[in-house]
Amino acid sequence: MRNAHAPYSKFRVGSAILLTSGEIFKGCNVENASYGMTNCAERTAIFSAVAQLGPKIEIRAVAVMNDRGVACSPCGACRQVIYEFGPDATVFFEGANGPKQAHITELLPEGFRLQ
Ligand code: THU
């Protein structure tokens, strides 16, 4: 979260993912002047894990937090990316009434997979 590049939204986000191997990877949001190019903290963490270990990673859990302590769950794009590498992942985030956890399929019913 401290490393976030968020000059446009000023909303700094950090994420950590736990793999079934026990390894942990971190990520932050990286914004761009072309706003749509922004990468969320969750996807940064996941892409970092793939870059380091390759595509066989299995995500066991994802945590996300922000510097304002406000409710913030992964966006739709991140849910789909989490599902790709963690169809049984638990996601920890700040909900409307405090810390929350949910299975990825609760957050993303009918996630898309190519077999
Ligand atoms: N953001 C994340 O990094 N993760 C989330 O779960 C929600 C939103 C970022 C994207 C953008 O840089 C900023 O927060 C405001 O939307």
Word description of this protein:
The protein is an alpha+beta fold. The chain has one domain: Cytidine Deaminase, domain 2 (3-Layer(aba) Sandwich), CATH 3.40.140. 23% of the residues lie in helices and 28% in strands. It contains 3 helices and 5 strands; from the N terminus they run E-E-H-E-H-E-E-H. Strand 1 and strand 2 form a beta hairpin. The structure holds tetrahydrodeoxyuridine. Tetrahydrodeoxyuridine (THU) binds next to helix 1.
Attribute tags:
single chain; 115 residues; alpha+beta; Cytidine Deaminase, domain 2; 28% strand; binds tetrahydrodeoxyuridine
At a glance:
With 115 residues, the chain is an alpha+beta fold. Helix content is 23%, strand content 28%. The chain has one domain: Cytidine Deaminase, domain 2 (3-Layer(aba) Sandwich).
Strand-helix topology:
Blueprint: E1 13-19, E2 24-28, H1 41-53, E3 59-66, H2 76-85, E4 90-95, E5 98-103, H3 104-107
Parallel strand pairs: 3-4
Antiparallel strand pairs: 1-2, 1-3, 4-5
Tetrahydrodeoxyuridine (THU) is lined by residues 6, 9, 11, 13, 29, 31, 38, 40-42, 64, 72, 74-75, 78.
Which ligands, by name, code or SMILES, are bound? tetrahydrodeoxyuridine
Give the H and E element order: EEHEHEEH
Query: Which stretches of 5+ consecutive residues score pLDDT under 50?
Result: none
Tally of helical segments: 3
CATH class: Alpha Beta
Number of domains: 1
Oligomer: single chain
